[in-house]
Specification:
Elements lengths: L10 E5 L4 H12 L3 E6 L4 H9 L4 E5 L8 H12 L4 E4 L14 H28 L4 E6 L12 H21 L4 E8 L8 H5 L1 H10 L12 H8 L10 E4 L7
Parallel strand pairs: 1-2, 1-4, 2-3, 4-5, 5-6, 6-7
Helix pairs in contact: 1-8, 4-5
C-alpha cells in the first residue's frame, strides 16, 4: 500500500517554491521520491538545499509569471533538466488588498494574470506535451478558502481563486479520460510570510483561532500529505476535487 504514495522516478514542476506553502509542497514531493523543478522569480536556495538533503535532484528555473510568453521557455528548461515533467503544481500567486470601491485596474489585472491566466496557459502547455507523448500526468492547483468564500478587501484575489476552482473542474472534465488528473488543494490559515500581520494582531489572531476547530494555524508541512496524495498513484481515480486543508474552517 505504501508504494501507492511513492513518486520515485517522477519529476514535479512546482511554481513559487522559494518559501512557505510552495516550499513545503516541493520538499514533500521530494521526500516521496520525486525530482523537482522549482519555477519562480526568487532564488529558492533553502528549498534547493532541503531537496538535496533528501537525496533528490532539484533545478531552479527563473521565470516571471503573468507573462504567457515565459511559459514555453520554462518548459523547455524543465524538459532539458530532467527529461520531462510528470506532476505540475500551480502554486505561484500574488495578492493585492484594497476596498472594492477603491480597487484599481492595474491591481486587478496583475493578480488575475498571475493567479489564473498563467495557471491556465501553463497547464495547457504541459497537457499538450503529455498528450503528444501519450503519457499520463497530474496537475495540482493551489486554491484557497476564497475559492468557497468571499472575503473582504481582496476582490481580484477572490475572483482568481474562485475562478481557479472552476478551472480545476473544467480541466478535469476535459482531460480525465485522457490520463490527466486535475485537482486542487485549498489551504486555510497557515503560518507563512503572508499572514505575519494577521498573527501579530491579537484580536484578529484570536478571532481566527476561534473559528478553526483544530485550534491552531496550519504549518506549511501540513500541506505536504495532500500534495503527495494528489501527485501519486493513490489518487488515480480522483478528478476535479478541491481538497480543503484548513483545520476544519469550512466545516464550522
Amino acid at each position: 500500500m505504501s508504494d501507492l504514495f511513492r513518486l520515485d522516478g517522477r519529476t514535479a514542476l512546482v511554481t513559487g517554491a522559494n518559501t512557505g506553502l510552495g516550499q513545503a509542497v516541493a520538499v514533500a514531493l521530494a521526500g516521496a521520491g520525486a525530482d523537482v523543478v522549482l519555477a519562480g522569480r526568487s532564488d529558492p536556495a533553502e528549498t534547493l538545499a532541503s531537496i538535496a538533503a533528501l537525496g533528490r535532484r532539484a533545478h531552479w528555473a527563473r521565470v516571471e509569471f503573468g507573462k504567457v510568453a515565459a511559459i514555453e521557455p520554462l518548459l523547455q528548461e524543465a524538459w532539458h533538466a530532467f527529461g520531462g515533467v510528470d506532476v505540475l503544481v500551480n502554486n505561484a500567486g500574488i495578492i493585492r488588498r484594497n476596498a472594492a470601491l477603491d480597487f484599481t485596474e492595474a491591481d486587478w489585472d496583475e493578480v488575475l494574470d498571475v493567479n489564473l491566466k498563467s495557471v491556465f496557459f501553463l497547464s495547457q502547455a504541459v497537457a499538450r506535451r503529455w498528450l503528444a507523448a501519450e503519457r499520463p500526468g497530474k496537475i495540482i492547483n493551489i486554491a484557497s478558502l476564497l475559492s468557497f468564500q468571499g472575503g473582504v478587501r481582496v476582490p481580484s484575489y477572490t475572483a482568481s481563486k474562485s475562478g481557479l476552482a472552476g478551472l480545476t473542474r473544467l480541466l478535469a472534465n476535459e482531460w480525465a479520460a485522457r490520463g490527466i488528473n486535475v485537482n486542487a488543494i485549498a489551504p486555510g490559515y497557515f503560518e507563512t510570510n503572508n499572514t505575519v500581520a494577521l498573527r501579530a494582531d491579537a484580536e484578529r489572531n484570536r478571532d481566527i483561532l476561534a473559528r478553526i476547530p483544530a485550534g491552531r494555524w496550519g504549518r506549511p508541512s501540513d500541506l505536504g500529505g495532500a500534495a503527495v496524495f494528489l501527485a501519486s498513484p493513490a489518487s488515480d481515480y480522483v478528478h476535479g476535487a478541491i481538497v480543503p486543508v484548513d483545520g476544519g474552517w469550512l466545516a464550522r
